[in-house]
Design a protein that fits this description.
By secondary structure, this protein is of the alpha+beta class. The protein is 32% helix and 38% strand. It contains three helices and five strands. α1 crosses α3.
Length: 99
């Protein structure tokens, strides 16, 4: 059973999203063929961008018809980085709005 959960956002501009992530100190990887997002016990999910939340867990960014969404093993992100799903989405969305 997968631990990954998807969160829809109103983010539509990838350039502004990447700038917001840089401002907040998040490192990320992106590739045209997609990247892997790491989760519980080595589970992986495909995404457009992999935000390195900790040494073992990532937050993925996937493009949808309506913009972008976040996908992650939020339990792992919270236990290793100390940031809940709500805090992460709120912080990134606020900084995204700035740009």
């Amino acid at each position: 059973m997968s631990h990954f959960t998807t969160v829809e956002t109103k983010i539509k501009d990838l350039v502004c999203l990447k700038q917001a992530l840089k401002d907040l100190g998040y490192e990320f990887t992106e590739a045209e063929q997609g990247v892997e997002v790491r989760g519980y016990l080595g589970q992986k999910e495909k995404a457009d961008i992999s935000i390195h939340a900790s040494k073992t867990y990532d937050v993925g960014v996937k493009q949808t018809a309506n913009g972008y969404e976040f996908v992650a093993d939020w339990w792992g992100v919270e236990t290793t980085r100390g940031v809940t799903q709500e805090e992460f989405v709120k912080t990134v969305t606020q900084r995204y709005a700035y740009h």
